[in-house]
Amino acid sequence: MLSLGDCRYAFIVVGLMGVLVFNVPSLMLFVHLPGGERFSELYVLGPGHMAEGYPFNVSAGADYSVFLGVGNHLGGSASYQVVVKMRNATEPLPNATSGVSSPLPMLYGYEVFLAEGQTWEEALVFRFDDVAFGVNVSSVGRIRVNDAWMNVNETAMWDNVNGGYYYQVFVELWLYNAPSNSFGFHNRFVSLWLNMTSFA
Amino acid sequence: MFSVPCGLTVGFEEASVAVADADGALRGAFVAVSDAESAGANVSGLIGRLNDAGVALTGARVALAVGNYSDAVGRAGECRGLADGVVLDAGVLKNDAAAQASRWWVTVLLSVAGSVVFGVVLFLVWRRFKRYYADRLLGCRPEVAA
To answer: Do A178 and B31 touch (CB under 8 A)?
Structure first.
Protein backbone atom coordinates (compact mmCIF):
# COMPACT_ATOMS: atom_id res chain seq x y z
CA MET A 1 0.00 0.00 0.00
CA LEU A 2 1.29 3.49 -0.95
CA SER A 3 2.08 5.85 1.87
CA LEU A 4 0.06 9.05 2.25
CA GLY A 5 3.14 11.04 1.19
CA ASP A 6 3.40 9.07 -2.09
CA CYS A 7 -0.30 9.67 -2.76
CA ARG A 8 0.18 13.39 -2.15
CA TYR A 9 2.91 13.48 -4.82
CA ALA A 10 0.64 11.59 -7.24
CA PHE A 11 -2.14 14.16 -6.68
CA ILE A 12 0.31 17.03 -7.18
CA VAL A 13 1.54 15.53 -10.47
CA VAL A 14 -2.04 14.96 -11.70
CA GLY A 15 -2.88 18.52 -10.67
CA LEU A 16 0.04 20.03 -12.57
CA MET A 17 -0.76 17.98 -15.68
CA GLY A 18 -4.38 19.08 -15.53
CA VAL A 19 -3.43 22.74 -15.22
CA LEU A 20 -1.09 22.31 -18.20
CA VAL A 21 -3.85 20.74 -20.31
CA PHE A 22 -6.29 23.54 -19.43
CA ASN A 23 -3.72 26.16 -20.39
CA VAL A 24 -2.65 24.70 -23.75
CA PRO A 25 -5.13 26.89 -25.73
CA SER A 26 -3.77 30.00 -24.03
CA LEU A 27 -0.17 28.96 -24.55
CA MET A 28 -0.86 28.41 -28.26
CA LEU A 29 -1.80 32.09 -28.53
CA PHE A 30 1.62 33.24 -27.41
CA VAL A 31 4.06 30.41 -28.14
CA HIS A 32 4.80 29.72 -31.81
CA LEU A 33 6.83 26.61 -32.49
CA PRO A 34 9.49 26.93 -35.20
CA GLY A 35 8.48 25.40 -38.55
CA GLY A 36 10.56 22.97 -40.60
CA GLU A 37 12.81 23.76 -43.51
CA ARG A 38 11.28 26.23 -45.96
CA PHE A 39 11.53 25.48 -49.64
CA SER A 40 9.64 25.18 -52.93
CA GLU A 41 9.45 22.17 -55.23
CA LEU A 42 9.56 22.26 -59.01
CA TYR A 43 9.26 19.03 -60.95
CA VAL A 44 8.43 17.67 -64.38
CA LEU A 45 6.67 14.35 -64.98
CA GLY A 46 6.06 12.39 -68.15
CA PRO A 47 2.70 12.17 -69.93
CA GLY A 48 1.56 9.41 -67.54
CA HIS A 49 2.22 11.52 -64.42
CA MET A 50 5.29 9.35 -63.76
CA ALA A 51 9.00 10.12 -63.90
CA GLU A 52 9.26 8.21 -67.20
CA GLY A 53 8.20 8.48 -70.82
CA TYR A 54 9.59 11.97 -71.28
CA PRO A 55 9.63 13.09 -74.92
CA PHE A 56 13.10 12.89 -76.47
CA ASN A 57 13.03 12.31 -80.22
CA VAL A 58 10.76 15.05 -81.53
CA SER A 59 9.73 16.34 -84.92
CA ALA A 60 7.55 19.00 -86.45
CA GLY A 61 3.79 18.68 -86.39
CA ALA A 62 3.38 16.40 -83.37
CA ASP A 63 2.17 17.29 -79.88
CA TYR A 64 4.35 16.38 -76.91
CA SER A 65 3.18 16.69 -73.33
CA VAL A 66 4.64 16.60 -69.87
CA PHE A 67 3.30 17.69 -66.51
CA LEU A 68 4.81 20.52 -64.50
CA GLY A 69 4.44 20.63 -60.73
CA VAL A 70 5.14 23.16 -57.99
CA GLY A 71 4.94 22.60 -54.23
CA ASN A 72 4.89 25.33 -51.62
CA HIS A 73 6.62 24.71 -48.28
CA LEU A 74 7.52 28.32 -47.52
CA GLY A 75 5.40 28.61 -44.39
CA GLY A 76 2.68 30.77 -45.96
CA SER A 77 0.90 31.51 -49.22
CA ALA A 78 3.14 32.13 -52.21
CA SER A 79 2.78 33.56 -55.70
CA TYR A 80 4.89 31.84 -58.36
CA GLN A 81 5.54 32.25 -62.04
CA VAL A 82 6.44 29.08 -63.90
CA VAL A 83 8.37 30.30 -66.93
CA VAL A 84 8.91 28.15 -70.03
CA LYS A 85 11.96 28.86 -72.23
CA MET A 86 13.83 27.15 -75.04
CA ARG A 87 17.50 27.08 -76.03
CA ASN A 88 20.03 25.22 -78.11
CA ALA A 89 23.10 23.56 -76.59
CA THR A 90 25.23 26.71 -76.71
CA GLU A 91 22.78 29.18 -75.14
CA PRO A 92 22.83 29.82 -71.39
CA LEU A 93 20.85 27.90 -68.80
CA PRO A 94 20.06 29.50 -65.42
CA ASN A 95 23.09 29.66 -63.17
CA ALA A 96 22.27 27.71 -60.02
CA THR A 97 25.46 28.83 -58.27
CA SER A 98 24.85 32.54 -58.63
CA GLY A 99 21.06 32.21 -58.65
CA VAL A 100 20.68 34.03 -61.97
CA SER A 101 17.96 33.09 -64.46
CA SER A 102 18.59 32.44 -68.13
CA PRO A 103 18.54 35.66 -70.18
CA LEU A 104 16.55 33.91 -72.92
CA PRO A 105 13.00 35.20 -73.53
CA MET A 106 9.97 33.66 -71.86
CA LEU A 107 7.80 31.61 -74.21
CA TYR A 108 4.98 30.97 -71.78
CA GLY A 109 4.29 31.77 -68.15
CA TYR A 110 1.93 30.13 -65.69
CA GLU A 111 0.62 32.18 -62.78
CA VAL A 112 0.44 29.93 -59.73
CA PHE A 113 -0.83 30.77 -56.24
CA LEU A 114 -0.37 28.18 -53.52
CA ALA A 115 -1.20 28.03 -49.83
CA GLU A 116 1.34 26.44 -47.50
CA GLY A 117 1.64 22.71 -48.21
CA GLN A 118 -0.33 22.87 -51.49
CA THR A 119 0.94 21.56 -54.80
CA TRP A 120 0.02 22.56 -58.34
CA GLU A 121 0.26 20.39 -61.43
CA GLU A 122 -0.54 21.40 -64.99
CA ALA A 123 0.07 20.01 -68.45
CA LEU A 124 2.71 21.53 -70.69
CA VAL A 125 1.91 20.65 -74.30
CA PHE A 126 4.31 21.74 -77.03
CA ARG A 127 4.66 21.31 -80.78
CA PHE A 128 7.31 22.47 -83.23
CA ASP A 129 6.77 24.03 -86.63
CA ASP A 130 8.91 25.46 -89.44
CA VAL A 131 11.60 22.86 -88.77
CA ALA A 132 14.32 22.65 -91.42
CA PHE A 133 17.51 20.68 -91.84
CA GLY A 134 20.70 21.70 -93.66
CA VAL A 135 24.23 20.39 -93.73
CA ASN A 136 24.97 19.62 -90.09
CA VAL A 137 22.44 22.16 -88.91
CA SER A 138 18.75 22.24 -88.05
CA SER A 139 16.44 25.09 -87.30
CA VAL A 140 13.13 25.56 -85.54
CA GLY A 141 11.02 28.52 -86.60
CA ARG A 142 8.07 28.28 -84.23
CA ILE A 143 6.97 26.48 -81.11
CA ARG A 144 3.46 26.19 -79.77
CA VAL A 145 3.28 26.05 -75.97
CA ASN A 146 -0.20 25.03 -74.87
CA ASP A 147 -2.35 27.32 -77.04
CA ALA A 148 0.24 29.95 -77.89
CA TRP A 149 2.42 29.97 -81.01
CA MET A 150 5.74 31.74 -80.56
CA ASN A 151 8.53 32.52 -83.02
CA VAL A 152 11.80 31.15 -81.71
CA ASN A 153 14.16 30.88 -84.71
CA GLU A 154 16.54 28.52 -82.92
CA THR A 155 19.31 26.63 -84.70
CA ALA A 156 21.26 23.61 -83.50
CA MET A 157 24.43 22.15 -84.94
CA TRP A 158 24.85 18.39 -85.34
CA ASP A 159 26.18 16.94 -82.08
CA ASN A 160 28.90 14.46 -83.06
CA VAL A 161 29.20 13.02 -79.56
CA ASN A 162 25.53 12.25 -78.93
CA GLY A 163 24.43 12.05 -82.56
CA GLY A 164 21.54 14.48 -82.95
CA TYR A 165 20.29 18.05 -83.17
CA TYR A 166 19.69 18.96 -79.56
CA TYR A 167 17.38 21.59 -78.15
CA GLN A 168 16.30 22.05 -74.59
CA VAL A 169 12.94 23.16 -73.25
CA PHE A 170 13.44 24.30 -69.69
CA VAL A 171 11.23 25.71 -66.98
CA GLU A 172 12.25 28.26 -64.37
CA LEU A 173 10.47 28.96 -61.08
CA TRP A 174 10.07 32.60 -60.07
CA LEU A 175 8.75 33.79 -56.71
CA TYR A 176 6.88 37.03 -56.01
CA ASN A 177 8.40 39.28 -53.39
CA ALA A 178 5.76 41.61 -51.97
CA PRO A 179 8.07 44.25 -50.40
CA SER A 180 9.88 44.82 -53.71
CA ASN A 181 6.67 44.23 -55.73
CA SER A 182 8.56 42.06 -58.21
CA PHE A 183 9.30 38.48 -59.15
CA GLY A 184 12.73 37.05 -58.52
CA PHE A 185 14.27 33.86 -59.87
CA HIS A 186 13.75 31.21 -57.16
CA ASN A 187 16.86 29.27 -58.24
CA ARG A 188 14.97 26.21 -59.39
CA PHE A 189 14.65 24.92 -62.91
CA VAL A 190 13.93 21.68 -64.72
CA SER A 191 14.70 20.82 -68.32
CA LEU A 192 14.05 18.39 -71.15
CA TRP A 193 16.63 17.53 -73.81
CA LEU A 194 14.99 17.09 -77.19
CA ASN A 195 16.54 15.58 -80.28
CA MET A 196 14.99 17.14 -83.37
CA THR A 197 14.40 14.60 -86.11
CA SER A 198 12.90 14.83 -89.56
CA PHE A 199 10.47 11.94 -89.01
CA ALA A 200 7.43 11.65 -86.80
CA MET B 1 -19.09 41.39 -69.43
CA PHE B 2 -15.49 42.34 -70.11
CA SER B 3 -15.42 41.93 -73.86
CA VAL B 4 -14.82 44.86 -76.11
CA PRO B 5 -17.84 45.91 -78.20
CA CYS B 6 -17.73 44.91 -81.86
CA GLY B 7 -16.65 47.67 -84.18
CA LEU B 8 -14.11 49.13 -81.78
CA THR B 9 -10.53 48.48 -82.77
CA VAL B 10 -8.19 47.80 -79.90
CA GLY B 11 -4.54 48.62 -80.45
CA PHE B 12 -1.39 47.20 -78.95
CA GLU B 13 -0.97 50.16 -76.63
CA GLU B 14 -4.41 49.80 -75.09
CA ALA B 15 -4.06 46.05 -74.75
CA SER B 16 -0.63 46.40 -73.13
CA VAL B 17 -1.98 48.87 -70.59
CA ALA B 18 -4.93 46.59 -69.81
CA VAL B 19 -2.64 43.59 -69.27
CA ALA B 20 -0.26 45.62 -67.10
CA ASP B 21 -3.20 46.89 -65.04
CA ALA B 22 -4.51 43.35 -64.60
CA ASP B 23 -1.02 42.22 -63.55
CA GLY B 24 -0.86 44.99 -60.94
CA ALA B 25 -4.36 44.17 -59.69
CA LEU B 26 -3.43 40.50 -59.31
CA ARG B 27 -0.29 41.35 -57.31
CA GLY B 28 -2.36 43.67 -55.12
CA ALA B 29 -4.89 40.89 -54.56
CA PHE B 30 -2.14 38.49 -53.51
CA VAL B 31 -0.77 41.04 -51.05
CA ALA B 32 -4.29 41.48 -49.61
CA VAL B 33 -4.62 37.70 -49.24
CA SER B 34 -1.20 37.50 -47.55
CA ASP B 35 -2.24 40.23 -45.12
CA ALA B 36 -5.43 38.37 -44.29
CA GLU B 37 -3.45 35.18 -43.77
CA SER B 38 -1.01 36.98 -41.47
CA ALA B 39 -4.00 38.17 -39.43
CA GLY B 40 -4.98 34.52 -38.98
CA ALA B 41 -7.68 34.14 -41.65
CA ASN B 42 -8.22 30.92 -43.62
CA VAL B 43 -7.49 32.01 -47.18
CA SER B 44 -7.69 28.70 -49.06
CA GLY B 45 -10.84 29.79 -50.96
CA LEU B 46 -9.21 33.03 -52.01
CA ILE B 47 -6.12 31.18 -53.29
CA GLY B 48 -8.34 29.23 -55.71
CA ARG B 49 -9.84 32.47 -57.02
CA LEU B 50 -6.37 33.98 -57.42
CA ASN B 51 -5.47 31.00 -59.60
CA ASP B 52 -8.56 31.62 -61.73
CA ALA B 53 -7.45 35.22 -62.16
CA GLY B 54 -3.93 33.97 -62.97
CA VAL B 55 -5.29 31.78 -65.77
CA ALA B 56 -7.12 34.80 -67.20
CA LEU B 57 -3.92 36.88 -67.02
CA THR B 58 -1.92 34.15 -68.78
CA GLY B 59 -4.55 34.09 -71.52
CA ALA B 60 -4.36 37.87 -71.80
CA ARG B 61 -0.57 37.75 -72.17
CA VAL B 62 -0.79 35.07 -74.86
CA ALA B 63 -3.46 37.03 -76.73
CA LEU B 64 -1.30 40.15 -76.53
CA ALA B 65 1.74 38.25 -77.81
CA VAL B 66 -0.11 36.83 -80.83
CA GLY B 67 -1.71 40.17 -81.69
CA ASN B 68 -5.26 39.40 -80.60
CA TYR B 69 -5.63 42.67 -78.74
CA SER B 70 -9.38 42.70 -78.13
CA ASP B 71 -9.14 39.24 -76.59
CA ALA B 72 -6.21 40.45 -74.49
CA VAL B 73 -8.27 43.37 -73.17
CA GLY B 74 -11.22 41.08 -72.45
CA ARG B 75 -9.16 38.55 -70.51
CA ALA B 76 -7.28 41.28 -68.69
CA GLY B 77 -10.64 42.72 -67.62
CA GLU B 78 -11.73 39.30 -66.41
CA CYS B 79 -8.53 39.00 -64.38
CA ARG B 80 -9.01 42.46 -62.93
CA GLY B 81 -12.60 41.74 -61.95
CA LEU B 82 -11.61 38.54 -60.16
CA ALA B 83 -8.68 40.26 -58.44
CA ASP B 84 -10.86 43.14 -57.24
CA GLY B 85 -13.34 40.63 -55.77
CA VAL B 86 -10.53 38.85 -53.97
CA VAL B 87 -9.27 42.13 -52.48
CA LEU B 88 -12.74 42.90 -51.08
CA ASP B 89 -13.20 39.44 -49.57
CA ALA B 90 -9.66 39.38 -48.20
CA GLY B 91 -10.42 42.63 -46.38
CA VAL B 92 -13.54 41.10 -44.80
CA LEU B 93 -11.65 37.96 -43.76
CA LYS B 94 -8.82 40.05 -42.35
CA ASN B 95 -11.23 42.10 -40.23
CA ASP B 96 -12.96 38.94 -38.99
CA ALA B 97 -9.63 37.36 -38.10
CA ALA B 98 -8.49 40.53 -36.33
CA ALA B 99 -11.73 40.63 -34.32
CA GLN B 100 -11.27 36.98 -33.44
CA ALA B 101 -7.69 37.59 -32.36
CA SER B 102 -8.76 40.53 -30.22
CA ARG B 103 -10.85 38.12 -28.15
CA TRP B 104 -7.72 36.30 -26.96
CA TRP B 105 -8.57 37.20 -23.38
CA VAL B 106 -11.66 34.95 -23.54
CA THR B 107 -9.39 31.99 -24.19
CA VAL B 108 -7.05 33.00 -21.37
CA LEU B 109 -9.99 33.53 -19.00
CA LEU B 110 -11.46 30.11 -19.82
CA SER B 111 -8.06 28.48 -19.32
CA VAL B 112 -7.57 30.13 -15.93
CA ALA B 113 -11.14 29.35 -14.84
CA GLY B 114 -10.75 25.75 -15.96
CA SER B 115 -7.47 25.42 -14.08
CA VAL B 116 -8.96 26.86 -10.89
CA VAL B 117 -12.04 24.60 -11.02
CA PHE B 118 -9.85 21.59 -11.72
CA GLY B 119 -7.55 22.51 -8.80
CA VAL B 120 -10.49 22.96 -6.38
CA VAL B 121 -12.08 19.65 -7.45
CA LEU B 122 -8.76 17.87 -7.10
CA PHE B 123 -8.26 19.40 -3.63
CA LEU B 124 -11.70 18.18 -2.53
CA VAL B 125 -10.94 14.73 -3.91
CA TRP B 126 -7.64 14.80 -2.03
CA ARG B 127 -9.32 15.65 1.26
CA ARG B 128 -11.84 12.89 0.80
CA PHE B 129 -9.12 10.46 -0.15
CA LYS B 130 -7.06 11.41 2.90
CA ARG B 131 -10.03 10.68 5.18
CA TYR B 132 -10.66 7.35 3.46
CA TYR B 133 -6.96 6.52 3.76
CA ALA B 134 -6.92 7.30 7.50
CA ASP B 135 -10.07 5.25 8.10
CA ARG B 136 -8.56 2.27 6.32
CA LEU B 137 -5.36 2.69 8.31
CA LEU B 138 -7.29 2.77 11.57
CA GLY B 139 -9.19 -0.32 10.46
CA CYS B 140 -5.89 -2.14 10.26
CA ARG B 141 -5.08 -1.69 14.00
CA PRO B 142 -3.35 -4.72 15.38
CA GLU B 143 -5.38 -6.50 18.05
CA VAL B 144 -3.76 -8.28 20.90
CA ALA B 145 -5.01 -11.78 21.40
CA ALA B 146 -6.12 -12.56 24.95
So the answer is: yes
